[in-house]
Amino acid sequence: MSRHRPCVRRSITETARPAARPAPPDPRRELPGPAPPPIYPAPPPAYPAPPPAYPAPPPAYPSPPPAYPSPPPQYPRDEAAPPVPTHPRETPVPSPRFHPRPPPDEVAAQHRDRMIHLIALNTPYDGNMRGMRGADLQCYREARMAGFTTTFRAMLSNNVQDMLRIVHAADWDTPVVNIRGEHLFASWRAVLNDGQRSTRPLYSFDRRDVMNDDHWPNKRIWHGSKSGGIRAGDYCDGWRSNYAALSAMAGDLRIPGGLISQAQPVSCDQKLIVLCVENMSKYHGDRILKKKRMDAAMACSAAAEFIAYTPQRIVMFIQIFFCICSIIFNLLFIYYCRKDLFFHKNCRVLIWALIATNIVHSAIVGAIQGMQLVQMFTVTDPCDMLMSAVLCYSLRLPTLVCFGSHLTIHLSVVAERAIALRYLSSYESSSSTLGFVLAVFSITSSFALTIYGTKNYNFTGRMFYCTAATKSTLLDISATSYFVVAVEAIIILLFGCVYHLSLKKSVVYDLRSKYQAKENLTVVRLLMPMLLFHFLIFFCFVLSYATSYSIRRLFPSDSAFRAYLAAIYIVPIYTACSPLLMGWILRRHRLSRTQALIRISSKTECVNDIYFSNYAWNIK
């Protein structure tokens, strides 16, 4: 029996592991005994199995051995086994489509800050609160003493302010809570429109319940408003009077519902509750301040690049040079040509107005460019270059008015010459009132055109380069410039019509009519080159601005593009060249008049030749 035990143990092992390959028989150790059950030999594996990525956990309960071994998998000889990789493949993880959510603490902080507080003052007040500013100041002081960093204002209406406008528009849908953060109203709109008020208590800044504390015996609140937060008309003389004869609208906290519902006028000598409300939640306030800080940081970095860009300095220096030349040339024109304007007084008023706009435009543009050029060489901190948008607009507005006045004055000259052509016989004896009226009309219409072109100007930001052509005003200024060029072309056609009619009416026998018609011809000959030059300059200027933003990508940086925009502003070149051109035309006109006077005053054989040479019907 002892001899057959190894054989039995061997058969049990083989039965438990049917997939194992049997060892070759050893004749030396072969013992007689019962034959083992037949086993199907498994073929050798074509590829070794990969190691498991993670070891299998041990079974909770061992499984019993199978009664009969299952046959191993067989593969046909002409087919290979499927390939097994020796290492696991790495599947690429796609990038998330949405930003991950912030941590729970940050979400809770945002939710906690996105609310506006409604808190009562620590003492009741009558109608004399020293005005709205006094009530707002008291809310501000008590809020600071309570530890609030936001701004509180009195929830009151007066003759210049509706209670609706106290809270910033961004927080009109923000929940309203008490000093402990407990919900009072669903939103500020609900406060104004008699929304349902919760049963949570309303506290003062010193955390006392105004409904249950005897310090406020009268449970009504001042607000001076009607439904919707609109001023009601009764507010104790602007909250400056406590006379019993005066009254103001007040709401009752004991009535369930809103704060403004069933408001009744109350005598101003009674002391009621005064509520204070945050004008902006901390959430929106931090967002606005953060945006302002980011804008200021970006502006400072852009200012540093602007200061270091040499072509910008060169362009600004050239503009200053032409502005100085323009002032000098216009003053010389006034000094030398004031006696050469042999025109009617109305026409002379308009020409002097044109010269004055040249001087004012050049002086202001030169001052702006000179101030900024000095700052570029002297400032140590780039943020010192920043100026208020309101200051920049106030400096650029006169230059834009002068820019448009050239067009409107040319139009006024056409109107003045048309009136002179209509009244040839009596226009010479008229006064200069029409000239001043047309000059005022020119400036006013140019001012209106400028206001339209800059109606979308951003007055809240700060800029390092003072210009009126910003992203918000670019479209309107471009449309205004196109309008200027179109009207200038129409003015040229009108001047041609006036010249043709004056040429026809100059052949008359009346001395006054003939003189006025010739004056019209002289004025048109004088101003026609000016109009053509003005049209050419402004057409090039508008065309350059129209194509500048289509070639924006050709510039390597914003500083290069900004220098290009400054370089195509050629209005100072026009204001410097226009008096030279006008003076040259007047000089030629003076020479022609002198030659005509010499010809007339020269000795002739017959005195009648003088008359017939000047007033004959066929001599123009």
UniProtKB/TrEMBL annotation:
<feature type="compositionally biased region" description="Pro residues">
    <location>
        <begin position="33"/>
        <end position="75"/>
    </location>
</feature>
<feature type="transmembrane region" description="Helical">
    <location>
        <begin position="388"/>
        <end position="413"/>
    </location>
</feature>
<dbReference type="GO" id="GO:0004984">
    <property type="term" value="F:olfactory receptor activity"/>
</dbReference>
<feature type="compositionally biased region" description="Pro residues">
    <location>
        <begin position="82"/>
        <end position="97"/>
    </location>
</feature>
<feature type="transmembrane region" description="Helical">
    <location>
        <begin position="316"/>
        <end position="337"/>
    </location>
</feature>
<dbReference type="Pfam" id="PF06482">
    <property type="entry name" value="Endostatin"/>
</dbReference>
<keyword id="KW-0812">Transmembrane</keyword>
<feature type="region of interest" description="Disordered">
    <location>
        <begin position="1"/>
        <end position="108"/>
    </location>
</feature>
<keyword id="KW-1133">Transmembrane helix</keyword>
<dbReference type="InterPro" id="IPR010515">
    <property type="entry name" value="Collagenase_NC10/endostatin"/>
</dbReference>
<dbReference type="InterPro" id="IPR016187">
    <property type="entry name" value="CTDL_fold"/>
</dbReference>
<feature type="transmembrane region" description="Helical">
    <location>
        <begin position="349"/>
        <end position="368"/>
    </location>
</feature>
<dbReference type="InterPro" id="IPR051080">
    <property type="entry name" value="Nematode_rcpt-like_serp_alpha"/>
</dbReference>
<dbReference type="InterPro" id="IPR016186">
    <property type="entry name" value="C-type_lectin-like/link_sf"/>
</dbReference>
<feature type="transmembrane region" description="Helical">
    <location>
        <begin position="523"/>
        <end position="546"/>
    </location>
</feature>
<feature type="domain" description="Collagenase NC10/endostatin">
    <location>
        <begin position="116"/>
        <end position="280"/>
    </location>
</feature>
<protein>
    <recommendedName>
        <fullName>Collagenase NC10/endostatin domain-containing protein</fullName>
    </recommendedName>
</protein>
<feature type="transmembrane region" description="Helical">
    <location>
        <begin position="482"/>
        <end position="502"/>
    </location>
</feature>
<dbReference type="Pfam" id="PF10292">
    <property type="entry name" value="7TM_GPCR_Srab"/>
</dbReference>
<dbReference type="InterPro" id="IPR019408">
    <property type="entry name" value="7TM_GPCR_serpentine_rcpt_Srab"/>
</dbReference>
<comment type="similarity">
    <text>Belongs to the nematode receptor-like protein sra family.</text>
</comment>
<dbReference type="GO" id="GO:0016020">
    <property type="term" value="C:membrane"/>
</dbReference>
<keyword id="KW-0472">Membrane</keyword>
<feature type="transmembrane region" description="Helical">
    <location>
        <begin position="434"/>
        <end position="453"/>
    </location>
</feature>
<feature type="transmembrane region" description="Helical">
    <location>
        <begin position="566"/>
        <end position="586"/>
    </location>
</feature>
